[in-house]
């Protein structure tokens, strides 16, 4: 083998190694902060420009360490958004109180001026429902099956929480049973398929995770795998027949520890009233 052939083979081999390792060791660990403007028709004027940091699908466990989650929490707090919302799947494995007890003391460090609001996902129930519910309540972030008002003067928005579609009862109508007819209602629901279920309460916005954006997104083909019935529910802001739906790509992984063309994200949502931006 001459020198040119050797170098060509070495470069080709190196390129293959890089291509194989990139989705596992590189892109999966590059967490972006992505900013989105979210129009809400009935957003009270004083909430125009209100910001939410949206965390979801952290999946603490194999290849997602407590120190990595600590970095995510610190980074989220440093964004100084008005509020923080979390939509579930904080742990990865089934039947694991250990992971739940590791992740929640870290999540409890989340802090924002107008509060932190959280619900559970299917992995939290698969890990251990009672332990996850214990920590959700202990953290002071619990919004499951209830809503809480955020006030600015006389104006308010309501943040409500559904149970997980697979591991719990949704109870969307129950969550907003104390709301008024004209309220701006924002629902946290881990699984975006929740918007296609039989609830009656009008919603101004739904925030979800669960899909991880597909994890592997191929040009022209889109996401290879989406764990939802409605395959239009991948990531980003989606106009459904019933409500605007925002799906974050989340932080962690499921099935395989890979991401390609689908970086993990901390989503920063700026709520805007379209009448005030015209």
Oligomer state of the chains in this structure:
single chain
Number of strands: 13
Poorly predicted ranges = 6-20
Q: Secondary-structure element order, as H and E? A: HEEHEHEHEEHEEEEEEEH
The major sheet is characterized as: 6 strands, mixed
pLDDT averaged residue by residue: 92
Q: Please list the strands of the largest sheet in the order they lie side by side.
A: 5-6-7-8-12-11
Binned strand content: 15-25%
**Shape descriptor:** globular
| Helix run count | 6
Radius of gyration: 20 Å
Structural class: alpha/beta
Helix content: 25-40%
| First-last Cα distance | 68 Å
Summarize the structure.
The protein is built from six helices and 13 strands. With 278 residues, it is an alpha/beta fold.
Secondary structure layout plus pairing:
Elements: H1 3-26, E1 32-39, E2 51-55, H2 66-78, E3 83-87, H3 97-107, E4 116-119, H4 122-138, E5 147-152, E6 155-161, H5 172-175, E7 184-188, E8 205-208, E9 217-218, E10 222-223, E11 236-239, E12 244-247, E13 265-272, H6 274-277
Parallel strand pairs: 1-13, 2-3, 3-4, 6-7, 7-8, 8-12
Antiparallel strand pairs: 2-13, 5-6, 9-10, 11-12
